[in-house]
Amino acid sequence: MARFKHPAIERMEEDITKQMAHEMSDVEMFDFEEFDESLVEKTGYSNYSYWRSTFQAFARKKSAMFFLSLVVLLVLFTFIQPLLPGQIDYFVVNNDPASGLPYRNLPPGTSVELMNGTQHTFILGTNSIGQDLWSNIWAGTRTSLFIGVTVAVIEAVVGIIVGILWGYVRKLDFFFTELYNVLDNIPVTIVLILVAYILPAGVGTLILAMSLTGWIGMARFIRNFIIIIRDREYNLASRCLGTKTPKIILKNLLPFLISIIMLRMALAIPANIGYEVFITYIGLGLPATIASLGNLINVARTMMLSPALRYQLIYPTIILSLVTISFYVSGNAFSDAADPRQHV
Amino acid sequence: MLTYITKRLLRSLLTLAIILTIVFILLRQMPIEGYFANYDKLSKVQIDSGLSQMGLDQPMPVQLFRMFRDLFKGDLGTSRIYRNNVPITEILAPKIPISLKLGGLALLVSLTVGIPMGTMMARHKGKFFDHFGTAFVVFIQAVPAAVYFLFLQLYGTELLGIRMLFDPNDWKMWVLPVFSMSLGNIAYYAMWLRRYMVDESTKDYVQLARIKGLSENKIMTSHIFRNAFVPMIQYLPTSFLNTVIGSIYIESLYSIPGMGGLLVDVIKRQDNAMVQAVVLLFATVGIIGLILGDVAMVFLDPRITLGSKKGGR
Amino acid sequence: MKKLAWMLILVMLISLATSCQPSSTPTAEDPAPVETPDEGDEEEPVAEETNALGDSEAMVYSSLYSGEISSMNYLIEGATNEQTVGANVIDTLVEYNQYGELIPGLAESWEVSDDGLTWTFHLREGAKWFNHLGEPVADVTAHDFVSAAKYVCDPQNQSGTDYMILDLIQGASDYYTTVSEYYGTLGDTDEKVAEESGADFSTVGIKAVDDYTLEYTTVDNYPFFPTCLTYVCYMPAYGPLLDELKLDFGTANDRMYYNGAYIVTEYEPQVRRVYEKNFANWDADNVHITKIELIYNAEALTLAPTMVLRGEIDYAAISNDIVDEWLTSNPEFVSKGRAVPDYSYFYGFNFRAASGDAERLETWEQNNWEPENWDKAVQNTNFRRAVMAAFDRNYSMYALEPDEQARIDVTQRTITPRTFTNVDGTDYSMLPEFDNVDQYFFNPEEALKYKEAAIEELEAAGVSLPVKMVLSYRSDMANWEQECVLIKQQLEEVLGTDFLVCELYGGPADGFLRQVRRNGMYGFMRLNWGADYEDPSTWAQPFAIDDTVRDTDNLREANSYNDMDYLLFEDGDSEMKDLLTTYYAKVDEAKAIADTLPRYTAFAEAEAMLIENAVFIPYYIDPASYQATRLNIFESQYAPCGVSNLRYKGQKVYDDYVDMETYTERFEEWLDKMGVQ
Question: How far is A262 from chain B (nearest CA, A)?
């Protein structure tokens, strides 16, 4: 049995023994004590802090820290960008004062005179109706990140709850497996179309449509892990000792899963953003008046073939890739760090 | 085990019926206009006659009963909008083999590349190959498929000196679609296998094996890999289905007459009978895949038990 | 270019004035195609019982398509995409030539009775039906036209184009109703046979007098009647085959017969469709392309341009996004299509957001669109005129057409497009009844005057300012969305956001018309209508009072365009009510007039009322898009209605792509030739 003892627990036991040997006199050591449950708890949770160790392990990885800061900076910048001086709202069509017509497809870095007489440099150029690509990309990133994070959180919360119940409580397995079979096989497209039919198109609708079905994957993922570990010896032991199911779930199973859950969430965010691109591709995405990375990429896809216009595709793709890479790398690092066995 | 599978299969029939019923009800919420190409110019009489033709004027339970009755007789129905008045089996017949072949090849490629890749990455954790593999995985994850598929097609065809559109009789034309379709799965398998293997490699039984003096190769293949592969195996059947359904981009780009875009297409065109048939097909494959996945998991890891067992909770 | 446009109009007027008399096909000397037309052209007429297919590799044209047809049944399909098949494989009684003149087709000649009701057509002998293998099956006779019409008028076939027969042909509507009522009494699984209803198709005004004489009797005096005959529902079909296949007709290429310029030799949906020349066609000499290969690709818009550059296909649409780039880097590939006045776009206001439709009111309120406010505001003429005068059509059209001159060429002053029809040498849109409309179009100063006037009246009516105006578009149409972005910015700039605020609403791609237009989910929107026949009455159809309640759940007693007729049934008096009463009376009056000039004048008067009161704002005819093509589009048939525009007949595939210079040359040449007629 000892083979399967959790390393963290082993370490804790060692710590306790050392402490006792160091601080207590022989007499005290052999004194009888009244049983005091609060004291049991106290020693059980000594100087080892799971989260502190996790963060310490995480901080040691330079690449992870770099990408994490990149994510933070990206997110911050999407909010700061509109407040910077000399920014043009993403929705505004910029007209040429000479002809009164929009400045279409200006290459990146072009400096032109605006209708109000001021000179403006379009850092990333303009799109085919003269909107500023720079501010469009930031507005798009903001929308897409918002969608990605919100959906990931909803999925995680619902998915974890359902997944644990499904995996641990055998009586529910039948019900949830059937529910999964049913829900997983109802084409998302039907749901998307119907939601789009009932509710006005917009960010909220899209989030709803994506989360309506998205949690199933997470739930099943968790369930499979629970099934794998629920009958491991230490859980058997806990059950034999009469530990209540909620406590086993919270104390035995969840910590084991945290690394996996974190990774899964970190990947779900960019996956959701990518999913938004796909939904836009099949024509069920956000209205094109709302800037999103999906819309930007989809509109610009035809331009991959035109060297002079390719920038309209490349820049949103770069941002999307950066977001994904950042989440992926920092998610992986966090998942490594969150594994208690790595806290050596 | 056998009883468990039989039970599951029987239950699956019920599940299928529920899925079809729900899809059926959802479909009936679609706007009437979608059933007519030129609703604007039709008179009330025409619309009514059209609806009764499609059986849509009947109360929903009647319609539902009819659908199941026909299904029971093995009749999938007739397409109305996708291909007017053509039996659905006739439409699906040529599409299924293409999708099977394409999906199968893509899965094969992704397994033969993805598994060694993930194993190598785990083995050389933190070294060059791991970084290289991670870079690949990150790239595939990061760049939207819509963009790199198009890129592969444009430059791949140029590089290989072949035409841009698919031709089933020319093996060269299979290369790019299969390759494109497997990229995502290669990354997926490599990434998760690496993750599970790294997780496993710190476990005590591995250390024991090391202490026993087993060679690193032996530890990797017969201990770590086997344990790490358990969570992966379950997804294999499902991922085959996903590959087929997910080939919508590839099919669109290369003009491949497969099943990938079919579901989205018929849903958008409100060809109810077609939607039901395709959902039935995909759901059947999906459910069988799920059972196969569970069974495979049990075979690989005897510690896992399915269903209720005496003494368990 | 502007000159050209006017010349075009002039030429059209002259040519169309004579279009009802049969005349011989003009034999224009085409520039010799580089690829020699197939030898089959010069062969003796194909002997009976020989196969109609020949050497199909002589002149091949290949292209991608992204929208699959649902069937090839030209008698029931209502959308252009599907009708393209019928247009190319079935010959009609009459057809248009490349200069827009009506010329004999399967009918060698025709005459009309003195009362203008009975049209007699004398059919060409020797025309044959062929199967998909090119084997002759039967002769084309007058009976085939009767069989086809009977099929169209059978309610169980749900023809999408039957209204063209039901509305125009005597007895057709009664026949349809009788059969339909009979079907209503049948159970769901009963076989439906029209004859058993007791209705007799011989009471319908379509008769085969003998094998080669066909007689149509119309409901009223319709001088434009022959122009209807180029439409799909008047095409012939081999009767015994229709009886045999019923609804299966046209669902596969071996489930129909061909008598036209081409035969569909391959039909594999979502894969490819191949047409091969019918060498035995009566007019095979004018069919030059021997094989048309259409390959399905859902990404055609993205891939086709590159495939053209690599020489894999012969045609690609060049989208507005990339056209500038192509004109600079691949100018030798880019030319334009020809704008055809058979489809008109106009902006219209929705007159009912809140009244009498709880569901609609709820949706408007959900979106915070202030429905009650809108209903009051839109009834104010000065408000609408302010919007009309502030609306810079040249600017918003920039989203579709970057070329200034091209924009001017397609911009319309009337809903009935320029060059659609003419009377006594005057184009309909230039009739004196329209003299006043020009002053209401874009003029920022006038707009502000209307604004001032409107503010006073609106405040008196209890309208709160700014008025929220919903601009709706179909969300999958990028150009339309961009157009709305431009309109929003431009209107708000001219009128000020203290007066007008535009809300953008992207409607769903699926069921767009029902959900947005028919459901009144817009304030101000681009609407469109296509001509069914060559008469101005066709352009009043969309606004007609719809007094049949079609579906009580979803539709109301109002037209499906802007619900304005609903106001007629509202209590009390209003400016709009007066206007509409006069308008509908004028349309009814005009319909009853048989003589062309007074008839056209009356329709023009009615139409001008709508424009002057800014109920509708004429916009454009579809600006022909840019394309890379090896065809000379000026060799194709040219028509203001019907399906003749969809034909490949007469066109040749050239070695070189057309560039803008060649395009312009050919365009001028075409105009010159039209001038000669």
Answer: 13
